[in-house]
Amino acid sequence: MISNFNKVYHVGLYIRLSREDDDKGLMSESITNQKSLLLQYAKENNLRVYDIYIDDGYSGTNFDRPNFNRLLKDIELGKINMVITKDMSRLGRDYIGTGNFIEKYFPEHNVRYIAVTDNIDTFLDSSNNDIAPFKAIMNDMYAKDISKKIKSSLKAKMKEGKWVGGRTPFGYDQDKNDKNHLIINEEQASIVKRIFDMCLEGLSFYKIARELTNEGIKTPAQYYSFEWKSHYHLRYGEWHSKTIRDILTNRMYVGDLVQNKRSKVNYKVKKIVKNNANDYIVVENTHEAIIDREVFYEVQKRIPKNKGRNEKKEIYLLDGLLYCGDCGHRISITSRRKKDNRCYTICNYYRTYRKKKLCTTHSNNYDELEKIIINSLTKMCFNYISKDKIKNNVLSNLDKNNKVNNKTELEILNNDIKQINDNLDDIYIDKLNKKITGEQFERVKLQLENQLSIKQKKYNDLNDNINDTINEKSKNKIIVEYINKFLSMKEPNRELIINLVDRIEIFEDKNIDIKVSFNIK
Ligand SMILES: [Zn+2]
What sign does the CA torsion over 306, 308, 312, 318 have? Predict the structure, then answer.
């Protein structure tokens, strides 16, 4: 059916396998199977395969997959104009997203999409394509359903007092004879006991952490080293107050199973959120205790309430835009102090590794800093607007002439191209009528084709040039709109500032560098 079209297709084969498929034991979905089916299909239809894009282990519920992104890039670079998958669910299991690709993105990018086993082909006007939206809904429902099923079966197990979490709590191992049961890891348990003892002796979290670090006691991170290695190399081997607090408040150590502490936002979004304590699923005495209940409750009384962390933090005007000019990491803004309502900036890199002195504080009174920055930004905006006015006046005259010139030149080039094509047709007919020899034909053809490609390139360049100027102008128009809004506002608003500012770098010597999204020269 594809050979009916004389267009040349450059095909991207897209293959996806996720754990949902694995769990169902769907061998038919395996990478090898999908690949051989697609290659076979391409071969039968004489299609040229540009590349194969494989996402192994990625769910279809969102589109943030590395090779899918690569596929989109190649579409945008014009490298492929046809995408083939085994069926629609390979593209995605999210109805809105999948529908968007099939009904909007692909057509807009002139890409033909084929789902082989679903008989869907976006370039054929066939009734099969009417199924596409329906199929996409089915796929979406399937993902929702599977995720619900997994969730409810997990919860049922938690309620039965079965351990279902991935990583065991520090001090415990998974029972080799029963994977839903925990047994004590003696080596780690002795460290846990010691931490509780030290707390009863009156040592602060910080002091406990320091003592353990000094003694070279292995941290939980070191025990679980496989997942920590890359990101936290600097923290490696160092006990932190937070680790101590987490251990001292973990009810698992008295033998109670506490689960369902975190959950996914929903089946489409991977993000994990902390659940309310009401949602925890607790079953008492499911495993051997490391700490006596009395000791545990005694320790809880001594633990200071965690203030601040759970309180809603104020969102500052410049939140997220501040960077350390000296080390490049982000600059945070602290919560307001109760006594004088002040808050301060601090370099994150400095704060995290305070003792190692990897950077300096970069401490500034935030409210004053904000005033200074808003003032400078206002000045930059005024400057831009006034220069833009002058520039526009000078340019608009030049521009009128340019426009006319460009247009006539485009027309001339277009005519030339037409003429060369006509000539090519002519010599072809001459050759057919044997007015010229094959050799003559080849030579003239080469010359003409050469001329054609030169003219074509000139035409494209000029056209691009015209489009660039138009883009540049509309971009500038938007910026000017933002700036005017910003300047006319009494209270600056965060959204506008984010549109105008890329980043603000703060240096220890109090220098400030505001990088704006418009060209100030
Ligand atoms: Zn820094």
Answer: negative
